[in-house]
Amino acid sequence: MSKRIGILVGSLRKESFNKKIAKNLVEILDKKYSYEFIEIGDLPLYNEDIDQGNPPESYANFRNTLSSFDAFLFFTPEYNRSIPAVLKNALDVGSRPYGKSQWDGRPAAIVSVSPGAISAFGANHHLRQCLTFLNMPCLQQPEMYIGNVTKILDENGNINSDGTNELCKKFVQAFENWIEKF
Ligand code: FNR
Predict the structure, then answer these.
(1) pLDDT tens for each residue of 40-84
(2) Mean per-residue pLDDT for 160-174?
(3) Which residues line ligand 1 (CB under 6 A)?
(4) Which residue owns the Cα nearest ligand 1 atom 15?
(5) Is the pLDDT of residue 177 over 80?
(6) Could you give the CA distance from residue 4 to residue 84 in angstroms, rounded to a whole number?
(7) Which ligand 1 atom sits closest to the C-alpha of 80?
(8) For residues 59 and 61, what is the distance between their CA atoms, to the nearest angstrom?
(9) CB within 8 A of 90, min separation 6: which ones?
(10) What is the pLDDT of residue 53?
């Protein structure tokens, strides 16, 4: 059966650069894979008090959705040199109840995107730290830092830089090889 890839984007913004880059990348995934963008904006902030016994429907649905994927591809902006709260919240919700984390053992990769020159390096590595703890084997090379993103997107949201397109192809190929190992 073809592997299913869950796409998580750490920005809720309609015109998010991360979403635009994500759309470019999923286009070049081999057609043998299926993928889905996973909604994370409607999850209440994680609170253990409401997660005893009967979890809120939104938490239960989210965990159920995560359980249907073989691998995850994360796109993250950088907020104050870390990952946006909405993405951390999704990681936290998916990681509970204790001992039943939906992330456990599933391969992953990270793309960080910023209009700034540092390419959301801080967010990329904070996210990597969380995924390490969550026991998600995370692709290490090639690293995917996309900086100065406004300069490489055309008015339709397509990447118009040959160098970046080449890197995207290499990254997607490496990610596909990576998820086949698990
Ligand atoms: C930012 N931004 C930002 N950029 C960056 O490169 N490093 C940073 O630490 C921050 N910090 C930060 C904090 C907050 C609260 C906001 C709202 C923004 C700018 C950020 O990269 C920019 O808004 C991107 O466009 C966000 O990504 P999306 O929404 O376009 O995907």
Answers:
(1) 999 999 999 999 989 999 999 999 999 999 999 999 999 999 999
(2) 98
(3) 11, 13, 16-18, 77-81, 113-116, 118, 120
(4) 79
(5) yes
(6) 25
(7) 9
(8) 6
(9) 8, 38, 40, 43, 62
(10) 87
Structure tokens at 51: 């997660």
User: Which residue's C-alpha comes closest to atom 5 of ligand 1?
Assistant: 78
- Give the model confidence (pLDDT) of 132-149 as tens digits: 999 999 999 999 999 999
> Is residue 164 within 8 Å of 25, Cβ to Cβ?
no
Q: Give the domain ranges of the chain.
A: 4-180
Is domain 4-180 given the CATH code 3.40.50.360 in the classification? Answer: yes
CA triple 38-148-132, angle to 5 deg:
45
Residues 14-34 pLDDT 10s? 999 999 999 999 999 999 999
